[in-house]
């Protein structure tokens, strides 16, 4: 019986993989990669194959979810299979399900962690990670609901920040933008009128966290709607109660208005 090793690819490009992860790929009998759970702006598939010295097979959402990862499980029964995943490999629940299925089939599994978008986004923002409440995904308009708005409201009552992941469909080259997300939340605000997403509400927009040229801006929603964040992927944060050092970080690195200093604890 072989094994399946889940390897994190990190952020932005193939250079984000750890040395350990690269060694696991080099010594594998079969190497797979999925590229649908996130987008890496500067990623080169050819360079990754060159670094690994192996042919790498791309697996789709259908392969891992609809077909329960059979192609990876089959390879793991016969030898050492490596599945390369953007970011940290088990942040996506898809891959947790695959690991559980491997365990049920008596296949050993190991994990080589990589840089996660979640920690990169929080670190880039300058906000304290222990002050974040529940994270929520803002979906595309055809699947939009009041859930993101409600989560932001719940977190705010506790003084906590809200990390809003913006939907993406890599196979369709569709990526929700900060502007689109704010407009949809504004529509819910117009309906519920709880004062959560107003024109003068301070929010933080980020794009391409983990890249050499990330975009970070903290401003009122009215101003963020005008800001050009460039290429995806993008993220949105709604701050809760700010510590004075969080406010200073947002002012220094995200161009936040200095009035934030008067809104701290």
| CATH architecture type of the largest domain | 2-Layer Sandwich
The CATH H-level superfamily of the largest domain is: Tetrapyrrole methylase, C-terminal domain
Strand order of the largest sheet: 3-2-4-1-5
CA radius of gyration? 20 Å
Largest sheet properties: 5 strands, parallel
Q: How far apart, in Å, are the first and last alpha carbons?
A: 57 Å
Gross morphology: elongated
Q: Specify the CATH class of the largest domain.
A: Alpha Beta
Instruction: Kindly state the number of beta strands.
Output: 12
Order of helices and strands: EHEHEHHEHEHEHEEEHEEHEH
How many helix segments? 10
How much of the sequence is in beta strands? 15-25%
CATH topology of the largest domain: Methyltransferase, Cobalt-precorrin-4 Transmethylase, Domain 2
Instruction: Give the helix level as a range of percent.
Output: 25-40%
Low-confidence stretches: none
Q: Specify the structural class.
A: alpha/beta
How does this model look, in words?
- The protein has 265 residues and is an alpha/beta fold.
- The chain is built from ten helices and twelve strands.
- The protein has a five-stranded parallel β-sheet with strand order 3-2-4-1-5, with helices on both faces. It has a five-stranded mixed β-sheet with strand order 6-7-12-10-11. Strands 8-9 form a two-stranded antiparallel sheet.
- It has helices at residues 19-26, 45-52, 61-66, 70-78, 93-104, 117-125, 147-157, 178-192, 221-224, 244-254, and strands spanning 3-8, 30-33, 56-58, 80-85, 108-112, 136-138, 162-166, 168-169, 174-175, 202-207, 215-220, 234-238.
- The chain is elongated, with a radius of gyration of 20 Å.
- The model has no long low-confidence stretch (mean pLDDT 95).
- The chain has two domains: 3-112, Cobalt-precorrin-4 Transmethylase, domain 1, CATH 3.40.1010.10; 117-263, Tetrapyrrole methylase, C-terminal domain (Methyltransferase, Cobalt-precorrin-4 Transmethylase, Domain 2, 2-Layer Sandwich).
- The longest helix is centred in the last third of the chain and has 15 residues, at 178-192.
- Helix content is 35%, strand content 20%.
């Amino acid at each position: 019986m072989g094994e399946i090793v889940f390897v994190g690819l990190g952020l932005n490009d193939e250079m984000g993989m750890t040395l350990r992860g690269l060694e696991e790929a080099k010594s594998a009998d079969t190497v797979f990669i999925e590229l649908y759970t996130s987008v890496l702006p500067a990623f080169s598939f050819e360079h990754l194959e060159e670094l690994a010295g192996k042919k790498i097979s791309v697996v789709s959402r259908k392969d891992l979810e609809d077909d329960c990862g059979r192609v990876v499980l089959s390879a793991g029964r016969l030898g050492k299979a490596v599945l390369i995943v953007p970011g940290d490999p088990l942040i996506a629940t898809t891959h947790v399900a695959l690991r559980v299925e491997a365990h049920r089939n008596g296949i050993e599994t190991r994990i080589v962690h990589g840089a996660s978008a979640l920690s990169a986004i929080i670190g880039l923002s300058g906000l304290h990670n222990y002050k974040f409440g529940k994270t929520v995904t803002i979906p595309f308009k055809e699947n939009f609901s009041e859930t993101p708005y409600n989560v932001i409201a719940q977190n705010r009552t506790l003084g906590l920040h809200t990390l809003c992941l913006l939907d993406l469909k890599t196979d369709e080259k569709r990526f929700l933008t900060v502007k689109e997300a704010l407009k949809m939340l504004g529509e819910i605000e117009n309906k519920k009128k709880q004062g959560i997403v107003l024109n003068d509400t301070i929010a933080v927009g980020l794009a391409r966290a983990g890249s050499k040229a990330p975009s970070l801006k903290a401003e009122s929603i009215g101003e963020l709607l005008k800001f050009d964040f460039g290429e995806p992927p993008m993220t949105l944060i709604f701050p809760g109660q700010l510590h004075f050092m969080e406010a200073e970080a947002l002012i220094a690195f995200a161009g936040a208005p200095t009035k934030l200093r008067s809104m701290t604890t």
